[in-house]
């Protein structure tokens, strides 16, 4: 029995052959969401068939998908950053063309699962993970179990409210952690300042370049005014959100993952400080915030090993 | 084997004999915190001895206590509304004088347990309870289990941040749900307006009456300006907080309990509306908010039945 773990992201699709000791081989390609649902799923199918052709053993697939998913029906219900992907029966489509059983999990929860088995969550029972990418995913692990909530749609830590009168969020709410800390949130946030700071280098040399997250953080290092405003809000939102989540989960560790987690590493002491200001006396300084070492691999590993467990349960 | 359940509140101590079918008899008396720790515990001991004298069977005691508790050591670690109660070994003191085993649980978590076994949480797996009393306690039940977090200090739903630049909270943080929605929060909130509205009837006829929660809500019904500001904030804070918590727990029900839950019953539709505005699309309108029917009895029932389970585990 061989296992493929897939991390379906807003920008990249990452897949790998997952074994008990880690990822054996990896394949990464652009998601190109603008090409439409069928095209994206087609490319996933082809990549699976290619990997599958390397061995005649039976294969099973674990798919980590953003947004709200239905595990039983193998569907993507809705994702803030995947417009039009409403009730997509992605598992049965992939099964049809690859003849492999496919198990779906929310991407951030798959990553939390990966961190628990292979990463910063090993040997600890209670932690939570925030994946800071196109959106902000959440994966809370309580006594070794990943929190999915009542009907499986919960555990959306990226959508707790940090600024009640804040920016609209792709999830349909406003002022969420995601609205300030994610790639899409940072871009939206910058756009709200375009009229006030039209000449800011955040908008490129002539004001017409697409906003790049990397650029925002590198401008912040040079104390550029608008980037300072945006990055300060990233730090503040994370501090407030983590503080509230510590009061709920009383975790040993908070793991930050995703592209933006690498850009904010130097701000971790500030985030810890703000988080402690929003934490009850009895839980102040009881947690540490760490950057994931596994990063993108956690999603692949988690989706794969979760699929293996699910498959064995069915046997 | 007979069981006494105790709910140690900031204002009242409530205890009862708990059986499988509910509470058999009840005893309620003032906490009188100002008399000091020893006096409060003494009165609990005497009340237990009085109840105990009614039967020669063995008795066990379940104590629901506010704040952060240590279940193993039987201690109250810290409570925002019980000043000076730091590391109080309350279980061993009560055991010493009553010769009954005593099990401690956080009061709101005991209430959640009571609601699960006897109240609005019966037959549902995932819900959360907010106890709106002197403070705001939280009890989240996930797949039938009460959330206590990593080292048992978590599940403090009343201390998620709803207004990041908001009022200080007794817990050492600021802008918490408790800072706006609890009895102590409402009083503090009103005090911040004393200079602006010195003649408000919230402060009594001559500005020197103690602020009463009942009075604030009854003035609000008459559209009195300051009470309107305060009550609006109660509703808004609850809506925002519940919205965030729904994104995390994806519950079937949200149960409100405690004195203030009765004063705000007519506002539940407004709270639901605000909560839905702060909830992800996929979870909007998936939950209902109900007022506890058990009210204070939930804490007694929960503390008692939890103690019984703990005792049987030790056997």
Provide a descriptive summary of the structure in words:
The structure is a homodimer of 315-residue chains. By secondary structure, chain A is an alpha/beta fold. Chain A has two domains: 2-106 and 296-314, 2-Layer Sandwich (Nucleotidyltransferase, domain 5); 120-291, ATPase, nucleotide binding domain (Nucleotidyltransferase, domain 5, 2-Layer Sandwich), CATH 3.30.420.40. In chain A, 37% of the residues lie in helices and 21% in strands. Chain A has ten helices and twelve strands. In chain A, the strands form three sheets. Chain A has a five-stranded mixed β-sheet with strand order 3-2-1-4-7. In chain A, a hairpin with a 4-residue loop joins strand 5 and strand 6. In chain A, helix 3 (107-118) packs across helix 10, helix 6 (213-221) crosses helix 7 (225-249) and helix 7 (225-249) packs across helix 9 (268-277). Chain A starts with a strand and ends with a helix. The mean pLDDT of chain A is 95. Chains A and B meet through helix 7 of A and helix 7 of B.
Q: How are the strands of the largest sheet of chain A arranged?
A: 3-2-1-4-7
Order of helices and strands of chain A: EEEHEEEHEHEEEHHHHEHHEH
CATH architecture of the largest domain in chain A: 2-Layer Sandwich
What's the overall geometry of chain A?
globular
Give the largest interface: A-B, 52 and 52 residues
């Amino acid at each position: 029995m061989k296992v493929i773990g897939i991390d379906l992201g807003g920008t990249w699709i990452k897949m790998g052959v997952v074994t008990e000791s880690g990822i054996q081989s990896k394949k990464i390609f652009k998601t190109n969401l603008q090409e439409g649902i069928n095209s994206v799923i087609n490319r996933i199918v082809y990549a699976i068939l290619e990997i599958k052709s390397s061995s005649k053993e039976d294969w099973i697939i674990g798919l980590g998908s953003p947004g709200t998913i239905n595990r039983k029906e193998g569907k993507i219900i809705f994702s803030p950053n995947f417009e039009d992907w409403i009730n997509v029966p992605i598992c049965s489509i992939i099964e049809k063309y690859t003849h492999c059983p496919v198990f779906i999990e929310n991407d951030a929860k798959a990553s939390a699962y990966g961190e628990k088995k292979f990463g910063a969550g090993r040997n600890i029972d209670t932690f939570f993970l925030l994946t800071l990418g196109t959106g902000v995913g959440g994966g809370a692990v309580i006594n070794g179990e990943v929190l999915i909530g009542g009907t499986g749609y919960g555990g959306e830590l990226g959508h707790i409210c940090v600024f009640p009168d804040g920016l609209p969020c792709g999830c349909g709410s406003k002022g969420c952690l995601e609205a300030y800390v994610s790639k899409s949130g940072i871009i939206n946030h910058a756009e709200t300042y375009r009229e006030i700071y039209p000449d800011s280098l955040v908008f490129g040399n002539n004001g017409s370049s697409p906003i790049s997250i990397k650029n925002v953080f590198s401008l912040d290092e040079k104390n550029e005014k608008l980037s300072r405003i945006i990055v300060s809000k990233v730090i503040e939102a994370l501090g407030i959100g983590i503080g509230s989540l510590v009061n709920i989960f009383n975790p040993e560790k908070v793991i930050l993952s995703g592209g933006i987690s690498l850009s904010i590493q130097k701000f971790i002491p500030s985030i810890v400080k703000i988080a402690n200001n929003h934490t009850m006396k009895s839980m102040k300084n009881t947690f540490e915030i760490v950057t994931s070492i596994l990063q993108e691999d956690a999603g692949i590993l988690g989706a794969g090993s979760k699929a293996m467990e699910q498959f064995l349960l069915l046997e």
